[in-house]
Design brief:
This protein is mainly α and 283 residues long. 73% of the residues lie in helices and 0% in strands. It has 15 helices and no strands. Helix 6 packs antiparallel against helix 7 and helix 11 runs antiparallel to helix 12. The longest helix has 42 residues. It is globular. It starts with 6 loop residues before the first helix and ends with a helix.
């Protein structure tokens, strides 16, 4: 799945550190696969809360397709709930089913999980490259859940990718103070510094937080994308200004010249006085 922020790159970089040498599946990986298989075959819990907890745990382990099957079973047994809907929406998003995921997130907008709905729609918009819409949806999510550091961070990232560096500052700094040890948030703040021209501060932050080389490269790559968007926005604004000026000039040029005095006399109320006035002006 395309990422909204730099979390995916960080995850890849951190995962690379623990990759085993050589090809094939090692004993540790086999054990993990067996654990996942066992968890997917566990007996269904006898309460809705326990069942939803099992599904959430499966998703935390990355077992999204199997979780969709269990969500179907849950809703058949207990009916749809906001909690089952958000789990379905997340699983659909993570399995590349964007349209179906958006429909599920939209169902949450009139529920107590409306913040999750707006956040999901924002993530989908960002994954599709529409960072303007992503920033709007994530702003709605942040307004409903003001202390969610991850949503604030994603909102700031979307604003940066939309070229709006000035408005990205507040949500990103809020996110950093709420969760200063979150590598994704740190990377997004470093991106803010880069986009603001504070290269030295950005490098110092990434060094202090120990961000891996892959994450640093992602920050620099995204910083260039932000600058490209800003440049395109400036060009568009200049073009719009020039077009407005051209339209004003065209309007002025289209105004007819004043009619001759003789033509205007026809509108004077006292025709007997007109010749005398004309003679006086002629003198």
């Amino acid at each position: 799945m395309p990422r909204l922020a730099l979390g995916a790159s960080l995850a890849m970089a951190l995962a690379a550190c623990g990759t085993q040498q050589g090809y094939g599946v090692g004993p540790q990986a086999q054990a993990e696969m067996q654990m996942r298989a066992d968890s997917s075959k566990e007996a269904k819990p006898d309460t809705p809360g326990m069942y939803l907890g099992l599904i959430a745990r499966m998703q935390a382990e990355g077992i999204y397709y199997a979780s969709l099957a269990h969500i179907d079973a849950f809703e058949r047994q207990y009916g749809k709930t906001p909690d089952s809907i958000v789990l379905r929406a997340d699983a659909l998003r993570m399995t590349g089913q964007a349209s179906a995921s958006a429909l599920s997130y939209a169902q949450l907008l009139d529920t107590p999980l409306a913040a999750r709905g707006h956040r999901g729609l924002g993530l989908l918009a960002g994954a599709a490259g529409d960072f303007h819409k992503a920033a709007q949806e994530l702003a709605e999510a942040s307004a409903l859940d003001p202390t969610d550091a991850t949503t604030l961070s994603d909102q700031g990232y979307a604003l940066l990718r939309d070229g709006d560096v000035a408005h990205a500052r507040v949500p990103l700094l809020k996110a950093l103070e709420l969760d200063s040890h979150n590598a994704k948030i740190v990377a997004n703040v470093a991106l803010l510094l880069e986009a603001s021209g504070s290269d030295a501060d950005a490098q110092a932050m990434m060094t202090q937080q120990g961000l891996p080389a892959v994450a640093r490269a992602a920050v620099m790559s995204d910083a260039q994308k932000v600058r490209d968007v800003q440049r395109a926005r400036e060009v568009a604004q200049q073009r719009e200004t020039m077009e407005k000026q051209a339209q004003r000039v065209a309007k002025i040029a289209a105004i007819p010249a004043p009619r001759a005095l003789a033509s205007a006399q026809a509108n004077w109320p006292n025709s007997e006085v007109q010749p005398r006035l004309v003679e006086r002006f002629a003198q």
